[in-house]
Structures
1.
Amino acid sequence: MPLAIRADGLVKHFGTTVALDGLDLSAEQGRVLGVLGPNGAGKTTAVRILATLLVADRGHAEVAGFDVARQPQEVRSVIGLTGQYAALDENLTGLENLDMIGRLAQIGKAQARQRAGELLERFDLANAAGRPARTYSGGMRRRLDLAASLVGRPVVLFLDEPTTGLDPQSRNALWEVVRDLVTDGTTILLTTQYLEEADKLADEIAVIDEGRVIARGTPTELKASVGGEVLAMQLADAGQVDAAVAALGPFGAEARVEDATINIPVGADKRVLSAAVRRLDEAGIALADLGTRRPSLDDVFLGLTGHVAEGGEAGQDGSPPPRQSRSGRRRSRKEAA
Amino acid sequence: MTATTTAATTTPVDARAPAPHLLADTLVIARRHLLALSRQPQLLVFVVIQPIMFVLLFRFVFGGAIRTPPGYSYVDYLMPGIITQTVAFGSSGTAVAMADDIQKGIIDRFRALPMSRSAVIGGRVLSDLARLLLTIGVMTLVGVLIGWRPDLNPLRLVAALGFGLGFGQAMSWLSALVGLSIRSVEAAQAASFVGIFPLTFASSVFVPVQFMPGWLQAFARANPITLVASTIRALTHGDAVGHSWWEALIWLVAITAAASIAATRKYKQTSS
């Protein structure tokens, strides 16, 4: 498959802050590349360079075969961009907003009108088409904003934290749209701080931290890199932890004393599950709880960076990303320590 | 640069959009601002009501205490000045609109579109001119109702209107530059006010310059607002326009050229 997005060694400084420190990214045509990282890791800066809004200090990037630095106008004609805010004119109606974007996307007056109507229908905004956008709810605004990025039928779509601040229902609707677009052959670069989102949508994930890619692979590969499924057994009596470890030794048991839990890695052979429980039973050790747990991307992030991702701290204030990042990162390091 | 180049694609991109049209894009943006204006009746206060209040205030409250040059009634002296003042004050909305567009990410959206790079500011300036036509029309009507009797020579009237609108677009470009540089709605509002207020009052808008203290006269005489107001005044009063018209014209051309180039450059580099 040809590459629709390719970035090699992007470097970007803001004053003394290093936002990107040799970032490499690539996305095959018709796939979803998830760019996962905490606040200020450089996700937004990367998107802004690829979308021709910023010029990199060093490095090279191509979108749909066009050089973002040398052919920005060509790049603009094949991309769509949705940022973290609903970038709309509040005083124009939904229809007027989309119609304006269509004309500025150079698709022609008649096409712009028709496309606006189609998208309003598709995003369930047809009934509100004639109302000023300021009367829209938060979810409606974000849908209109996404529609605006699709007016020009982009080949490559950049979604910069598209579900930040969205209610679960709107988020699910947006996920559906992303899947539909991919079916139609659109390449999507999606940045997110939500591990679940990257897991659900992305064909490939690039984990970035401090302006560089620290891991990449499919969601499955990344999860495999921190180990497979784990059987977690919580003992009824914390005093029996040592006895349990002794009984389960052959299975590679590890104990977490603080909550009296024994973890056993589960390989392809699922008979381990029943065998382990039988052993404990034979040894007269009672269980309070048990279950299997698949490693999440949270585990991936913790394993790779030594700190947890900050999913809940989505930046909705307008402060510049690099700055926000620094304090955020320091805070999370402390938490992890 | 055209948007139809297909060189070295790694992705088969079908024939894309044609190159952007400066005029068409400018009209789309101008239409956006005029639609938005029509949806905000509260803005009519600034476009229509505040100018009328200023006219009435100076005509009836302060006017009686202000000396006028020989041959002028105060209303004949006032109207060209107050129209110039209104044009200057009205431009501050453009600084606010640009800062607001940056804050809301709308400038980012435009900059990621294959549109003309001059149309976003150009369209705003064009919409300002349409708004100014409305304001000047209403003020002229009110002026005539309270006794203004301008010279009706059509060439002079067209020239007077031309100076008013020319000044308006120069101030709009300047205001756009301020908004794009300051990037905060509140700060843009404050900066415009701090800049325009003293320039307007230390001018021949309300009071003849010769009645000001000497040190202020030097400033007021070189002030472009004085030159524009004096030119419009001479044109509408049927006087010889003297040297104020070309001095005003130099100011307008210089402000427009410098501000439009600087504002367009700023726009290209702007990112929120």
2.
Amino acid sequence: MRRLSSWLGRLTLVVLPVLVVVGCADSDTGSRVSGSLVHVSVKDFRIVVTPDHVPGGETELVVRNQGPDTHELIIVPLRRSRLPLRLDGLTVDEEALRAIATVEGVGPKGVGRVRLHLAPGRYELFCNMAGHFMAGMHNKLVVG
Amino acid sequence: MPRRADFRPFAARGRRPILAILLTFALVSTVTVALSISATKRSQHRASVVEVAARQRTLAERYVKEIVLARAGARVDPRYTASVLARSADALLNGGTAPAVYGDDDETKLSPARGPAVRGQLEQERRLVVDLTATGNALLAHDPVARVPLTAHERLELKDPVLRLRVLAALTSNVSLNAARTLASSTDANINRLIVLQSVLGALGLLASLLLGWALILATRRQTAHFRSLVTSSTDLVLVLGTDGCRYVSRSVMQMVDRAEAALLGPGFEALLHPEDRTAVQSAAGHGGPPEIVFRVLNATGEWRHLEAHVTDLREERWVRGVVLNARDVTERIKLEDQLKHQAFHDSLTSLPNRALLRDRLDQALARAKRSGGLLAVLLVDLDGFKQVNDSLGHDAGDQLLRKVARRLKDVVRESDTVARFGGDEFALLLEHVTEHEVVALAERLLAGIARPVVITGREVSLGASIGIVLDSGSGHSEELVRDADVAMYAAKDAGRGRYEVFCPEMARKAGELLGVDHELRVGLQRGEFSLHYQPEIELATDRIVGAEALLRWQSPTRGSVPPARFIPIAESTGLIFALGEFVLREACLQAAEWRRAGLVPDSFVTWVNVSAKQLTGGSLETVVCAALEAVSLPPSMLGLEVTETAVVENGVAGERARAELEKLHGLGVRVAIDDFGTGFSSLGHLRNFPIDMIKVDGSFVRGTVDDPKDAAITAHLVNLAHALGLVAVAEGIESEGQLGSLRDFGCDLGQGYLFARPMAAEQINELLAAAAAGGNQELADPDAAVA
């Protein structure tokens, strides 16, 4: 009996701190997911937005790079059917747009996050690294 | 048992931490250097990769241009560019050599890419290069590009072939650039880690240095403390002397002289040095040698302490700058040496110089006399009558007497003169710068001083002395002078004792002869040159042989047959008579025992041996006689001793001793006869009391019995006297029948002489005795026949 109680005591000492840490982590995650959570998967050379329709308001975009190359994600409200290109004909003219958020250089297997307050409307998500947009790295997110 | 190498008091404790710190320091330094080298190589590689990656962008753009130009008919070689692109992409991924481009740059050697992210990007670049060149080839071949299979792309919806080619080129250049960035960022992270690591290692190195310094300081302190304790607790005396005086003294030095350190440092120590030794110590301090010095230091009680020091020259040693003396206090040893030296050169009884010291001083005096031409004298003083005092009052009294005589001798001479004891009762004096007259006067004073009565153990004792004097002006040798003084001293004794004699060459001649014979006698005794002859004694009434006189014979190889009258006096004067006498007694007893054992003689037969006065007074006669008798089991009554009148009638201690000796022997049964009776001046009263059995009438009277009435009358009276005293009368030197007849008429009991038999060797008398034993009375009228 005494050995059993000793083992229980030790188990308590090990488990209790773990539970405390896990509890803290859950509470942190909970605070992040308030609003909408949009998973944006980027890879060579495609962008997948899940879900592509979210209600307006607070939105967190989690960008996961699943390709071998480095990528970025620029979010702009979509006002025209096509985004304007620079003179090189290969990259979007960012200066002509009003980007509401940018997730810079997410490396392979990397994750980037951005929290936005999105008003209802259509938004274009694209990677503007040289040739990436033209190669097909753009997609839409509908809010509202 | 611990080995000597195990004893490492200074290193055992401090060495391990120091070694550990040094090893840590070395390890940290090695790791730091290795990391630095590695980081530098990585930086070089990174630069190469970035350069090649940047070049890929340019190549991709040029490839597009070359395709467009080629389609327009220009002379360009896009395939070469594509080849360079592909080979460079492969080199970036798998390592190898990235080719030069038209000689614009050098070939670049690359290592295989590391890390999954970089490798993923470079693999993508390679796929894009494949897609790009495939698209370019399709364009050159005017084939539809949409059919070109893509490896790096899921789909590419661009219809314009050139745009499609440009996008692929842009993707290629971009991924290449991204790979370079990834590599750069990872390298930066590595460099940051390296900086942190090197900082840590540097800190560790600094800590190790501090620990090392600390450990060294501790070790140095420990060693210093150890050495200090060794020096301060050592019984050895340690001093450091410099040109400015004493710089260091160990505690043992302070204890030895019983003074404080301040009193010894600087000039203080030199002030305590013995004036005779100061120069030697100052010289050692100034020159660093000699290796060993001995000097004296005054301690607080005023005693000079002798120090024996080993000198070590450390004047060039930076931390010493002086001469180190490792000294030991050898005072006791030197005292002992002095004592031993004194004992070696002085007589322990009187504390006077001994023979060796006198000889040494005499050598020096001779050298001085030779230089100055002065006269020196050696006096040899032998006490007369000391032996009697020693024998009668005992050795302690004798010692007291010698001490008193020594004092008297010293009282008489000058302070500068040497009085030595040669041993026994013999003293020697060495006088320098004297005249013969002064020496003679001194000798007289010495005789007078010694002659003064001395009271020893309550008894008043008077002594005399015989003094031999030799004078020399430096031409002689010490041995010769002492020998000459000895000769002169014996001359004084021979001249009647109680006087002095100055040596003269005539004495030397006599002494030389005497010494020569004495030497031959001693050698002859060892070589068996001596033998006994026997002359029978005849009972005149019966003509029977009733005894024999043993007579000593010396057959010298150089001198021939030497008669006893020639060598016996010499033997007596040199003391050899004792050895000779013992030889005669031993041989005579042996011969008598053989006769007796052979049945040649009855137990009444007496073998007579002559005994000198010296033997009688020598104190050992009884012992020698008893030993000779016992050795052969001869009855004492078969041995007779013949002594001269003068030996037994002498007045004084010697006469008393002789008589006592004879009484003891006579008491044992040994026969005693007075030899040469009538020639001395014997007191009849003495004779009456003597233990005598027989009187031998001297042959000088016997020879005149026929022709000289006076001799006849004396002989008759002597025979009558013997009979009156109850003694046997023996006539010596019977040579004729007439003499024999007269003696028979006088009633003489026994006779001896050539008429009966000459002295003969043992073998001859054996035959004579054998014949006598076999045939009764032997006719001895023919002495020559008997001798033959």
